[in-house]
């Protein structure tokens, strides 16, 4: 890619990351309504957390009032970090039996109290003909549009499923977005979006498809780590242009778990890169030049993508690993400086210009600043990492970095020879 195209791609990603994760949006309310073919009283019993049909979706396992001041304890089906259902204390205001209520979350066993500081949820039911007009609302303070968009689609899905339950009496889990076929479609869309950046020809399409495959393999490593850490559910979501994200089935329980899951994205590919390099060399020796070039491109893309993910940016895998294994801010700063310097040194040995590497370092610094502190604070501190695990993860991080660094240098040498 030319420097201009590279700059456009980087600027687009930085702008999207700022918009999705950091842009201050203030207090926002998402409100949606739908006409449901069911009488108001029956719907009230479903939407009111203390109602007889409150478990219609399987989300609420049980609910009971704690006092006469509108406070209740709600047991949810979502798994907490200990694998047990999450418990939540909520206060209900403006309750009009059969018509409306407002709910604030006081605390729960998964997230810190500060997460719920500005959150408010409302529901209103109005009879309309033979059905009921249901209006749901959620108010919160947002930084970045990602969570705002998520809540919009979550509310839309809830109303759709409520309508289906009202007609059939059954609740169907899941939806089209996380369906495997939909995710394959998003992966194809991601490759098509990347295609023009590599050139609108067959080689450009091959590179776009290779990069998309590399992202999928990286996220597959995270998913495998989630399963090894006891998550009964794990899934991958493709985000066109930005890549993909692996999601576990419950909150993290320990610092070791965070470090292990973060490292396994690049760690999984570290097993594959040497194999692909060997396969490329074998194909070249057998005279299959096209196959050798394709495999070399796959090895180079995988190595470069994964080593870049190990850079100590706040939300990147490398940053997450270092924050768990470094015993203090001084050690974290030194480790971050060492890792970033090693990454730039690999880039210099691979033939990248000094100006490009300086710009890359600046971009990573901006990324770290944009995403710093954007995570969700848990209700309780994570279990500390043991010293032996700290050194084991540090050794694994170094090994994975070296493998991908060698992959980048090998691929750059192949490009030079070509």
From TrEMBL:
InterPro entries: START-like_dom_sf. Keywords: Hydrolase, Membrane, Metalloprotease, Protease, Transmembrane, Transmembrane helix, Zinc. Its cofactor is Zn(2+). One of its GO terms (molecular function) is metallopeptidase activity. GO terms for biological process: proteolysis. The chain crosses the membrane at residues 6-27, 258-284, 290-313, 325-346, 352-370, 391-413. Belongs to the peptidase M50B family. This is Site-2 protease family protein. It comes from Mesorhizobium erdmanii.
């Amino acid at each position: 890619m030319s420097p201009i195209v590279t700059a456009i791609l980087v600027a687009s990603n930085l702008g999207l990351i700022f918009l999705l994760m950091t842009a201050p949006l203030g207090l926002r309310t998402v409100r949606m309504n739908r006409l449901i073919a069911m009488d108001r009283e029956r719907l009230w019993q479903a939407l009111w957390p203390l109602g007889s049909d409150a478990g219609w979706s399987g989300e609420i396992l049980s609910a009971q009032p704690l006092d006469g001041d509108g406070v209740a304890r709600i047991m949810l089906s979502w798994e907490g970090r200990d694998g047990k259902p999450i418990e939540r204390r909520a206060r209900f205001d403006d309750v009009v039996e059969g018509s409306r209520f407002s709910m604030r979350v006081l605390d729960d066993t998964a997230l810190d109290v500060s997460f719920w500081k500005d959150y408010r949820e409302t529901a209103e039911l109005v009879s309309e003909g033979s059905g009921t007009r249901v209006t749901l609302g959620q108010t919160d303070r947002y930084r970045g549009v990602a969570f705002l968009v998520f809540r919009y689609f979550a509310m839309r899905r809830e109303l759709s499923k409520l309508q289906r339950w009202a007609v059939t009496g059954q609740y169907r889990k899941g939806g089209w977005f996380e369906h495997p076929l939909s995710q394959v479609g998003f992966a194809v869309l991601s490759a098509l979006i990347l295609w023009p950046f590599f050139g609108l020809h067959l080689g450009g399409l091959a590179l776009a498809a290779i990069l998309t495959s590399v992202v999928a393999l990286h996220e597959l490593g995270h998913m495998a780590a989630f399963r090894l850490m006891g998550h009964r559910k794990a899934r991958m979501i493709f985000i066109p242009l930005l890549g993909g994200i692996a999601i576990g089935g419950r909150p993290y329980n320990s610092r070791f778990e965070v470090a292990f899951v973060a490292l396994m994205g690049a760690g999984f590919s570290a097993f594959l890169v040497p194999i692909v390099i060997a396969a490329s060399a074998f194909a070249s020796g057998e005279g299959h030049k096209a196959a050798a070039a394709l495999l070399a491109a796959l090895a180079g893309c995988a190595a470069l993508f994964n080593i870049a993910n190990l850079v100590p940016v706040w939300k990147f895998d490398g940053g997450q690993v270092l924050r768990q294994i470094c015993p203090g801010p001084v050690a974290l700063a030194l480790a971050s400086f060492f890792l970033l310097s090693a990454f730039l040194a690999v880039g210099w040995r691979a033939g990248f210009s000094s100006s490009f590497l300086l710009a890359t370092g600046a971009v990573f610094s901006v990324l770290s600043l944009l995403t710093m502190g954007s995570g969700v604070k848990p209700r309780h501190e994570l279990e500390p990492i043991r010293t032996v695990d700290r050194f084991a993860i540090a050794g694994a991080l170094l090994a994975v970095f070296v493998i991908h660094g060698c992959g980048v240098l090998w691929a750059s040498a192949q490009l030079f020879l070509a």
